[in-house]
Write a structure and sequence with these properties.
Largest sheet: 6 strands, mixed
Number of domains: 2
Radius of gyration: 21 Å
CATH topology of the largest domain: Butyryl-CoA Dehydrogenase, subunit A, domain 3
Strand order of the largest sheet: 2-1-6-5-4-3
Strand content: 5-15%
Helix content: 40-55%
Number of helices: 11
Shape: globular
Distance between the termini: 37 Å
CATH superfamily of the largest domain: PhyR, sigma-like (SL) domain
Order of helices and strands: HHHHHHHHHHEEHEEEE
Amino acid sequence: MTAAAPALDGVFREHERALWGLCYRMTGSAADADDLVQDTFARAMESPPPRTDIPWRPWLVRVAMNLSRDLLRRRKRRGYVGPWLPSPIETPADAEPPSWELVGDEGTSTAGRYDLLESVSFAFLLALEALTPQKRAVLLLRDVFDYTVRETAAALDLGEANVKTTLHRARREMAAYDATRRVPTAELQATTRRSLEALLFHLSNRDTAALEALLAADARGLSDGGGEFQAALAPLRGPRKIIKFYTTIAADRGLPVRLDIRLLNGLPAFVCEMATAGEREAKRFVIRCDLGADGRVAAVHSILASRKLTAVRF
């Protein structure tokens, strides 16, 4: 082992969690974040920065952001089978949010436009998915991690004027999210849990009237099977289609033999396991929902793809 290896191991341990939080937000994928962090430290082993006597974090962030943007561009070129949903990650109430305070060099705490827990919510990550990789990177560094314009420019190899212009455009594209944003407070968590439990109860009883009352008129259902498992290949729009889809599944497959409610991405979600699974049927999956301003269920999400569930304990 070279003399540099122990030092790099210490660097890895010091920065791994913060870089993972950054890469997860960039990609919306826990598995991709794992790979990107490993790739970042592989680069550090193969081609370390010219100076290793100064803090490593700016260099590591620059590498991780470049790798993340490259991955996002490849993902957009490849396309995706069916609706894309983020990977669920566990965010227990007694633990830090999965950002681990990746702040700019000139700051001591995050005080951005979006707080740390909100920035891993499904609603926020889905809004980010509509941005270009560069807009996403600038928005995260400036509005989540509270980087200065200068720090953001250095991390992304951009001019400061470009950072300002890109941020302005990214914020404009986030306007629809901002207009309906719901920060995952304890009150929202409790309300969401009650709605999830009601959703499952009414589905098990096939109570169509109760389900229609629970769902918003413009509710959407999204299922992410990633091409691996059977799932709705297009968004389900409106209560009737959502109810028919889930009641048909419940009638065919029955209810899960294991059903846990956990805080995932800031809000309660069902972690489910079926007794058996046929060909192209998911044995394990996550079901979650988002509520609208009126308290009714505005979105129902099913995450089935195995690669999307790497950060969830079963």
